[in-house]
Amino acid sequence: MEDNIQNEHIDQLNNETGKLNWKELERHFARGAVIKVAIEIDLVNAAAMFAEDNKVLVESWLASGQVVRANEDDARRWGKNQQVFWAIVTAPWVLVQEIVEQ
Q1: Measured between alpha carbons, how far is 75 from 98 in angstroms, rounded to an integer?
Q2: What is the pTM of this model?
Q3: Most buried pick, 32, 33, 52, 72, via CB within 10 A?
């Protein structure tokens, strides 16, 4: 039963994931709510762990630098490059991964 609930939560989060450009993300950055998630971490899984308050896993990502709050250098680079992101909201946070154009 618990697995079904978790799978439904993952499916719901997956449906809430979308592309955002820097201009759409900028206001969230201004309020300090943008969290960068390393590409090797599944964005939907990261959002689920934030939503479930999985402190052990989130703290390990923070300690390793795989999950970090976006900073001014990120904002300057994103603005200059007109960056596009995969993003998902896990209030109060907006978790993002940069989309790298091939």
Answers
A1: 12
A2: 0.85
A3: 33
